[in-house]
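User: Hand in any protein.

Assistant:
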Amino acid sequence: MKKYIVAFFLIVLNQQLHAQEENRCSSFELLQKLKNSNPQYEIQLQQAEINLQQYIASHKNGSRNIISVPVVIHLLYNADSANHKISDWQITSQIDALNEDYRRFNADKIKTPSLFDSVAADCEIVFCLAKKDPAGNYTTGIIRTETPYSVFPDFDSPKHTATGGDDAWPYTDYLNIWVCALQYPMLGYSTFPSAAMDASDGVVCHFKAFGRINCFSKKYFLGRTATHEIGHWLNLSHIWGDASGCTPDDNVGDTPLQDAPHYTCVEFPFSSCSNTSDMFMNYMDYNRDSCMSIFTEGQKERMVAAINLFRSSILNSEGCNPPSHFANDIGITQIIYPDAMVTGNFISPTVTLHNFGSNIVTTATIYYEKNWKSTMHSFNWSGSLAADGGEANITLPAIADSNWYNIFCAWTKNPNGVQDADTTNDFKTKSYYADPIPSEIVEPKKHVDEQKVFITNSIVTLESNSKENFPKSFSVYNSIGQQLNISAKELSANKFQFDFSNCTSGFYFIRNTANNQSSVKRVIVQHDF
């Protein structure tokens, strides 16, 4: 069989349509404010960039370890606004999202076009909710503070108790994240590292775009507002360089020049500056959460350099280490299965149950479900987990799976039949795709082509480099094996087009047949709603 190239085209929308959308990030505006208020600030930033580039140049291919960043969440809520007071588990789901995105464990990395595979990075940075406060005492890492504000009016007020917010923990040892209601259309903002850091250092996120369960936003619901803002906190610029035209740069060599932000998934390839394509799926663009999937090696270099130059004290922070143990405290530290991609109509989840407490644990209840608001399942576990770190991998009874993108959730309750002393380590989430390959498609003499697939809103084009013997018999199936009434539109002797605009988001299969041989292409359809 010849190899065929699959190109997936998106509907290009005029960015003017998005003038009234939420502002993905206001970090540039904050940066301008700081420059205007302090004439020395821009000079300090320029020197910081010189130092950072020198560090990167002198640490090429150096040995690296996983960097752990303790996080304290300052949740600012108004008593008259019930939605402001989000749950511990919604906050925990945000930490899980950060760890997937910064380690490239995110299931939707399959959407990253092949063009950028060689530069896609595991940034080797992980985040934890702080377990030790600045005084050395135990903490959940979540500080809830009632505020008189239903909406915070400016950049500074969330960060100070005196102005209705909450004072930062030492920025030398913690990443401070303030979660609160922000003025429309603002979703978040961050400070940048430099010699001018002070108690205002950290990230601010709108509560409605924080976490990936019970998230209030329909566009920013996978935790990537925080992923984006923490990129700034680690010295990344917006990928288009925060100015129009193709001259501004983000100071990263492996991110293509582009002349403006993207607000939706656009056609791939989409070139704004004579490049092969904009990297519109980069976390430092303005795209919707479902369109984002990549940091690059160059961005990783900047972030690691920023930590070592400007945030080096956090490398020695004890914030992730609890100072003491409770008697009865268990939780889930890892979701082993589902993997990032699973097949079939059922999954048998496997989780790692961990004993954080000083008592041996012999019983507990594990609850689990996918996509949070589906049917809740429970499993009564019994066994023996040794005190102070005992753990076991537990395979849970199978549950029906759902096609497309999912968030699997699992959590524990009632170790030894009593209340868990620390519930913030009970809950764990993991993203995955369910990609069944129907038996109606996979038959003898047929195979599924694992060629890279891209995101599409509607149109898929099959193209061959050769005009000879191109197969012209096509069948289109959905993920449960039903043949669809989608015909091939012949564009030329070696190019055919398929219109999926009337299909829901999900996995589809195109089978082409010639000379009693078949090849099947897997297609991802994602409508940008």
In short: The domain at 14-238+295-316 is CATH 3.40.390.10 (Collagenase (Catalytic Domain)).
